[in-house]
Amino acid sequence: MIKKVLFAVVFVCLLSNLSLLHGQSGVLSIYPDPADFGIVDLNSSGYPLTFYLSNTTSSSVQITGMTIAGTNSGDFGFYGGNCVGTIPANQFCQMAMVLTPSAMGSRAATLKIAVSGVANPISVPLTGTGGNPIPNITSLSPASAYQGSSGTKVTITGTGFVPSSVVLWNGSTLPTTFVTASQLTVQVPASDLVNQGSNNVFVSNPAPGGGSGQSASFQIIGLDPSLNFLAPSFQVSGTPASPIVINGQNFMTGATVLWNGKPLPTTYINSNQIQAQPTASQLAKANIVQLSVSNPSPGGVSQTLPFNVTYPTKVLTIDLPANDLVWDPYARRIYASLPSSYGVHGNTIAVINPFNGAVSAYHFAGSEPTKLALSADGNYLYVGLNGTGSVRRFILPSFSPDTTVSLDTSNSVLTAAALAVSPADSHTVAVIPSNNNCCGSGQGPVEFFHDTQLLADKVTSFNFSSIAFANSTTLFGYVNSTLGEVNVTATGGKLGKTWQGLLQGSDIRYEAGLIYSNQGQVFDPSSETLVGSFDLSTNSCCAPVQIVPVAPINRVFAAGVTPFSNNTLGITSYNLSQFTPIAVANLSQINGSVSSTYLRWGGNGLAFTVQPNCCNGNVPQVILVQSPAMLLASGVGHNPVPKVTSLTPSSATHGTGNFPITIQGTGFVPSSAVTFNGRQLTVDYRSATQLVVYVPGSDILTAGPANVVVTNPLPAGGTSSATFTIN
Which residue among 22, 65, 269, 678 has the highest number of C-beta atoms inside a 10 angstrom radius? Predict the structure, then answer.
């Protein structure tokens, strides 16, 4: 109500002032007088202009008629009703009029108002201007041209075009042809089609009115396409084929996607997107495919991007902050050392069933168990106890504490930076005691213990960070690009040859006579030569790649950030002899850094721990990966029927504990399985003529014959058996 009163007061004051400023009949005051409608688009109605007719007398005024006269009277009209009728004393009437110019330029007319009792009509001049509209572009045809094309005619569709419209190309005018109010054409010269990229196209209308409205973009497409990324970037082998969208620049109509250089069925979307459809056979086997795009002549071929047909995997994640892991082939279990911070199960060794991810037991180990090492016969587990600066040995499978040796010196507390058990003597262990140790990593000399006795010979002239037995008489140590050979005897070990700068990285693995570093170098200590290197990613956000070489199947498995899968976490398999990548197991769902705790378990499993790194803050976890396609690949075609010819040994005395059996024969494959009296055993494939199986002592508690069966899986395959005697 207050607003209405204020408006009335202001309006009365306005009319009072207007009555003094504008022509009057003695009975009416009119505003505006004269009336200017401004510039209005040709053949369009402008905004309504409001008129106020005020009765300035103390008596009613009768308006008997209103007409529009003059040269351009047809361009002006009433908007709604008018004020014909009675205006009470001291009141006003409000009405509106519009201008719809039929021609360009000035438009003029007169509003005639007939008032009862007034001899001559009141005249109000009406003026306005017919002007050009603001043009807008909705589309260009064509909307692109190839770099270096000849002059091109472009049709512009939109609104508000007039015969005097001009097209602007990056701000410069081009000769323009008016077709209709919604269409223009322009000839773009070849000189404007030289540089690839986006060009701004405007339409401008001259004054009066006019101006420039919405623009459009005309693309000049380069002859050679380029690729940015693929969606998706991988597909699991053996799954139904689905399309791949390639994103990039400069794709021409008729462009073709190449799969390792061979054309795929291709759908053109636009100059920045193209879609390809691989076949089921192309996705049948894991591999790293190189995708590229070929433009039709005169275009060229893009660079390649890797598309991963990945290994199918089963991944189990266990929320355990494990410091270290070892695989026990006899018990078919993984042991994990857990820190004191892990609640009620802190300072224990967890027993993990890797086939289902279940933790079956926790065994107390001592203060801060970290590094682990398993004897070759599976009878002993060595545990580095960082909290007490010692190494404790446990008897398996009971986890009974056995011996403990102290690593402390008179003036410092030392911890085990590395442990390795002699492959020939389960009572002899090599240790790197270190006083610069964070979470089990550090540097130090190499010492040897036989049971609780510190052997006399130790390597003190050089500090190492990792060690690996090659055999009972040779151990290799590594630190910071330096490899050392240690000669092992009954009295310990002495440093022999050293090699500088041939290997890089933070860790080494020994396999079948060669040394592998986790930056990809492969060294042959017998010939003292670097035999090759793998293209491992080193830009892994503060976390190195870890490796597991498996010589019998000619593979190296690298876990960490892979350069072949958008720098995400994965396991890349490499051809061990050709040093080339084969395919990737995508693990992009996992975050963190792969630690040096990385191992192979069973026939088709890999395990590692991930820790938070500088890139993310996930919790520590144990990751279990199973992939027969990756770890048990046996080539193409059907599996042969195996044939067992001998077992070594062929007998054992009941109750004598764990032992391996070497099976000789023919037709063995990496996926060969072995049972002992119907119980599945861990199998190491060594060659097509040799398998090694690990028999736990619990399987020979009763005397009698045992049936050893080798089975090759489908396709084809078969079984073969032999008898083992338990005395």
Answer: 22
